[in-house]
Amino acid sequence: MFRQRRLVLALAAITGILLLHNLASTTSRNRSHKITILRSSGGAASAPAQTSERRRWLRSRLASLGRTGGCKLRFAGEAAEAEAAPAVGGRRKRVFYGANLYNNAPSMAHWLVELLQSVAEHEPADAFVSVYESGSTDATPRWLAFLADVLAELGVPFSIVSNATDVKAGYADRIEFMAHIRNQILRPLHEGFAQPAGGAEYDKLVLMNDVFFCARDVRRLLALDADLACGLDFDNVNNTRKAGELQPLIDRGVDVSRMPLFYDVWVARGIDGARFSKLPPYVSDAASVAQAHGGKPFRVYCCWNGIAVLRAAPFLRGLRFRALGGGSGGGGGECSGASECSFMCKDLWNSGYTRVMVDPMVRLAYDRPTFESLQQPISGLDDVAPTASVAAAASAPPKSVTCCPRAHGWDRRLYWSKCYAEPTRSAAQPKLGPAAAGGAKPRIADLLAVLQAFQQDSLSDRSPSPPSSVAV
Length: 472
Prior knowledge:
Helices cover 33% and strands 17% of the residues. By secondary structure, it is of the alpha/beta class. It is globular, with a radius of gyration of 22 Å. It starts with a helix and ends in a 13-residue tail after the last helix.
C-alpha cells in the first residue's frame, strides 16, 4: 500500500512537470503581458474538505511539508502550541491575508506551503487571501495560478491579481509607488468583496513580504493582543544591499561574514524611538532588552520586519498606506526618509492604536541559507530560555523618533550620517470613518503532491518551476 501511494504521488508530480513544460513552451510569453484577475467568494470546496477530519488531515499534510522545507521546532512546547487556534471572544479569529509579490519564483514553493498551512487553520469562511503581483518577469504568475487552484479546492475566498501593469514610471517617488502597491492588496477589503459570512468583520490583517517564514510564526503573531505585531527579519551579509551600514561593525572587528543580521533598520523603531541595530539585542530600551533576552514580545514604536499582523479596525475605517504628506492627516515637516510602513505606524499611533509589539522568536529571512541558520540559537539574543508570551500593553509614544533623511525620487539610499530626532505627534490627526457595518477541479491530494515535488527541487538547490493547474 505504501509503495502504491508513493507511486501515485510520483505520477502526479511527473504529470504536473510535463504539463508545466507544455505550458511554459507554448503560452508563457503571451500570458506574461496579460493581466490576470482570479477571484472566488469561497464556498465551492467539496464536502469532504469542509469536515473537521478533512481539515485535520490537510493541516497535518501541510505541516509535514513545512518541516521538510526547514520549519523545524525551534523551542520547547512548540508542538503543543501548534494545536492552539488563534481565537477572539471565544471564537476563531477572522483573518485577511495579503501579499505583494515581484519575481519571487525561487522562494514560492516554501512560501505557498506555509501560507496554505496558515490559511488551513481557519474555517474557510473566516479567511481571505489577497495577492497582488506586478511586473514579474519570472514564473511567479504561474505559481499564483496554482495557488488559486488550491484555495478554490479548500473553499477559501481569494483575490489574486497577476501580471498587473503598475509601473514605476508613473510615480515620481519610490514611496508613493510602494504605498499604491500595498493599498492594492487591500482593495477587496475596501470594495466589500472580502467579507466574512453573516456580515461580520475581519479581526486581523496578515500582510506579508516575500520572506521565508513558518506557519507557526503567523500563529504566534496572531496570538498577541496587539494593534501591530511583527517578528524579526534577517539578511545575510552576502545578500545585503546596505553594505554601508555594516562598515561600522567591520571597523569594530565584528565578523559579519556568517552571522544573520537584522534587516529592516529602515522602519523598525524601539519604544524609545531609537533605530534598531543590526546586532542583538537590536533595541536599546532596557525593558525591551530584558524581554528580548527572555524570548518574550516587547513594545516598540514601529515595525514591519517581513510580516506585519495588524488589527483590522482602522483599515475598515479608512486607514491607508501613504507617502510623505499624503492623506491620513500627514503634512509638512514629516521625515523625508520614512517609508510607507513608517507612516502607517505614525498614523496608527495618532489614531489611538498604540499596542505595537515585536516577538523575537518569530524570525524571518529573504534567502534560504539565512533562514536555515535561524533555526539555531542566536548568540547574544538566546542567552535566556524563552518563556510564554505576554500581552501587549498600550503606552504613550516616545517624544521623538529617529529619522534618517532621503532624497525625493527613486534613490533607495538613506543619509545614515544625518539622522535626527523627529517629533512623533502630528498637528492633524488621521481622518478615520466610523466602524463599518457588518470545469472538473483538481483533487487536493494531487495538488499537494505536485507542490511537494517542486519544494524538494528548491531544497536540492535546483531552481524550481511552478506546477501548472493539475487535474490528475
